[in-house]
Amino acid sequence: MIRKIMMIIVVGLLVSCSTETKNHLNYVNGKAFGTTFSVQFIDDEKLDFTTSYDSIIGVINTSMSTYIPHSDISKINKGDTLVRVDQHFKNVFRKSKKLYRQTDGAFDPTIGVLVNAWDFGPEGKIASLDSLKIDSLLLSVGLDKVALIENKIVKSNVNTYIDFNALAKGYAVDVFATFLEEKGFENYLVEIGGEIKGRGKNIVKQKPWRIGVEDPNFDDSQSYSKVISLKNEAMATSGSYRKYKVDEKGNRYAHIIDAKTGYPHKSNLLSVSILASTCMEADAYATALMSMGLERSKSFLKSHQELKAYLIYENDQKVIETLALNGFPND
């Protein structure tokens, strides 16, 4: 009888230990794409894939980082016509083409030359920027001036400058997520510079992955008045409240450049958060809607119910209001 009880206790301990081990939370963070990244996943043992993460970051940087002089995209921007782009570049380029057409040019990766001109990019500010210079730069803007032919980028205007920063981070999140899924992990959360994708839940706490929607604070402080559960989807946020410039008259202008006019976008729309099936799409649509402004964004979202959106804006009295559309969660 004593032996039987002892066996029950041992079996109980084994079950307990097994259950605890299966709920091990693996966590790592680091630097990527000029910002930070973090990865959480749950498995029955402690695992470290830091080398693999660094490899993914390196490959994507080599392909499409405008901050690296010898990356493929930098070579293309400098006029090299012999560069053969990799699959990562092709994936992002094709998605960009789709969104460019879908948003009537509101999403345009060739706006980078104007991003640089307004001192929001790696090239620095163009001196004496005026309407004539802006009109001249606009001649090279438009993704319709760029084509992908037999693994090479062909530009109809040699001065066209391509910049995938509006969706590259989101794409990298998807690549990280695919890596984890191919390893068989069913519960994970990947974040790069605030762009996030989650699957399953945090089974250590037996709760869904919880993420915050950042408040539009102009003083560089961070706060989150809205926190939601992320359920097998991705979220990205674009805003005009953190990355902006102030001119000599004290006027503030955002890093969102209007592809039609060439000027920084002026809008009462402060922030757009998008929930979508992929982080690349969430990232790109958030940027596109910021460029569209409040009313155009609301109209666009009516015909794209697959995009869950959370808009933060200033009303006519300069009071901040929020708007959740297409089932964006209220919890």
Produce a short descriptive summary:
With 331 residues, the chain is an alpha+beta fold.
Fold and architecture overview:
This protein is globular. The chain has 331 residues and is of the alpha+beta class. Helix 2 packs antiparallel against helix 7 (168-182) and helix 4 packs parallel to helix 8 (279-292). Helix content is 33%, strand content 24%. Strand 5 and strand 6 (195-199) form a beta hairpin. It contains nine helices and 14 strands. Strands 1-2-5-6-9-12-13-14 form an eight-stranded antiparallel sheet. Strands 3-4 form a two-stranded antiparallel ribbon. The chain has a two-stranded antiparallel ribbon with strand order 7-8.
What key phrases describe this protein's structure?
two-stranded antiparallel ribbon
**Radius of gyration from CA coordinates:** 23 Å
Mean pLDDT: 86
Which range best describes the helical content: under 10%, 10-25%, 25-40%, 40-55%, 55-70% or over 70%?
Answer: 25-40%
**How many distinct helices?**
9
Q: Return residue spans where pLDDT drops below 50 for at least 5 consecutive residues.
A: 1-21
Oligomer: single chain
Derived from helix and strand composition plus strand pairing, the structural class reads alpha+beta
Order of helices and strands: HEEHHHHHEEHEEEEEEEEHHEE
**Global outline:** globular
The proportion of residues in beta strands is 15-25%
Distance between the termini: 53 Å
Q: Largest beta sheet, briefly?
A: 8 strands, antiparallel
By DSSP, the count of extended strands is: 14
Spatial arrangement of strands, main beta sheet: 1-2-5-6-9-12-13-14
